[in-house]
Amino acid sequence: MKVTLRQIEGFLAVADTLSFSRGAQKLHVTQSAFSQLIREMETALDVRLFDRTTRKVVLTEAGRALLLKMRSGLMAIEEACLDAQAISRLEKGHASVGALPSLASGYVAQALGDLRRLHPGVSVSLHEAQNPDLLEMVLQGQVELAVCAQVPASRELVFEGLFAEELVALVPADHPLAGKARQTWKKLARVPLILMSHHSSTRRTIAEALLESGLPDKPAHEVASLHTAVGMVRAGMGAAIMPLTALMEVNLDGLATCRLSSPVPLRRIAICRRRDRVASAAALEVSHLVRVRVQQSLRQGILPSPVEK
Questions:
Q1: Within a domain: residue 29?
Q2: Is 252 or 148 the better-scoring residue by pLDDT?
């Protein structure tokens, strides 16, 4: 049994008008073509839908039963089509987004606020996690995209670069390193280091910089939270190394930053998504709004362009 949408439209046209000629007019076809359409539907269903004479057309019992279901079914199809169009126009829809903790409270939160103001019918859910967990969430389809640290692309994942930022040393304002234009890693290593755990997107970059400088990756303190690291620096327990974007939402009263060299530590931030999935209109809009926020920071000098050395 194979009934087409065109046949259903023809059946409903006759049921509404009880006239083959008026039904043909509604579908903008000749009466002979319209009659053939109805005959083909009856043949496909192996049931007579109309009793017709030269004077009138009436629904059979089977036709009346079919009419109730067909009308609601067609309405559901039309509603589904309207929903799809509304989603594409960002009148409704949903996006699931992942982000690093150091970015979630800044660019990502700002972009989601922009989304809410521009497209109030679109809902969004934010999942904050460390880089390995974010990549796994994208792979498993738990989030459509993640704003995360870029890693080498794979067959499953693709990365669209956003920006590269320096990692800087955070020290008390009265520390000897405060106010210095740049310091080497060897000089910084004389201070107790407060580093994020190995799950952090910055730790691998820091470990590579220490190795290049001939220094061990053995911090005095290892923490899981940026706020803990900031609190420990404020308490005079050492120097923390963190990305500039992480400091944009932090109260830096009594603290100072020092840029590092030989090598300059860089973290590359990107939007990650599955290579084999087409992003929803809502997810594409989130990506666009994140980029807009990043570009605003670059133009305003809030996020300085890194110096690669």
A1: yes
A2: 148
